[in-house]
Automatic annotation (TrEMBL):
Annotated GO biological process: maturation of 5.8S rRNA; maturation of LSU-rRNA
Biased composition (Acidic residues): 164-178
Protein name from the UniProt record: LAS1L protein
Domain of life (superkingdom): Eukaryota
């Protein structure tokens, strides 16, 4: 009788400690540490190629935009394009997995995975309309990074990195503020 061995999964990172270090580096807010984490993600990508988790890739692209923004080396228009590309890729890649044989509207797919609808509308404007203000792109980046932290990174660690959960009233106020920011941007 053969003894079954547990299946092993090959990953690009060395171990749990490296994974944790990169996650903390990406979300720490210190540009130098973020750049180190981005360099590590680039190394993972070279090892793992197309198998790289979409959430890791999207997080890295969005954090890279924030690092470029904080460096002061790019003009406003260049930053809008940088944030825009990262946001468009995020929405497209995350919703693409839920597409079936028939085309499903992005707004519906986003609702299913709890991505704010205004982020999908922002993606639509970036793709098909007039470029939005930099402030809206920054806000979109922050919201998406927070979504990735809550729905991907925290779950990978098996704990809640998001801190204490906000009560429903605070979440409602934040949604209203986001909607207001979005509406102001297009008026």
């Amino acid at each position: 009788r053969k003894r079954l061995r547990p299946l092993r999964t090959v990953v690009a990172w060395r171990g749990r400690a490296e994974w944790d270090q990169v996650m903390v580096g990406l979300y720490c807010g210190d540009s130098r540490l973020q750049q180190e984490a981005l360099d590590r993600v680039s190394a993972w990508k070279s090892r793992y190629g197309p198998k790289m988790p979409l959430a890791v890739d999207c997080t890295a692209e969005l954090v890279r935009c924030k690092v470029l923004d904080s460096s002061g080396r790019l003009k406003s228009h260049e930053l809008i394009l940088s944030y825009g590309m990262a946001l468009v890729r995020f929405v497209n890649l995350i919703t693409e997995r839920k597409q079936k044989m028939v085309s499903i509207p992005l707004r519906q797919l986003a609702r299913e995975v709890d991505i704010p609808i205004w982020v999908v509308d922002l993606r639509h404007e970036l793709t098909h309309g007039k470029l939005p203000r930099l402030a809206l792109c920054r806000k979109g980046c922050d919201v998406v990074l927070d979504w990735l932290r809550k729905t991907y990174w925290s779950r990978q660690l098996g704990n809640n990195l998001c801190g204490e959960s906000e009560d429903e009233e605070e979440e409602q106020e934040e949604e209203e503020a986001n909607a207001e920011l979005y509406n102001d941007a297009w008026e």
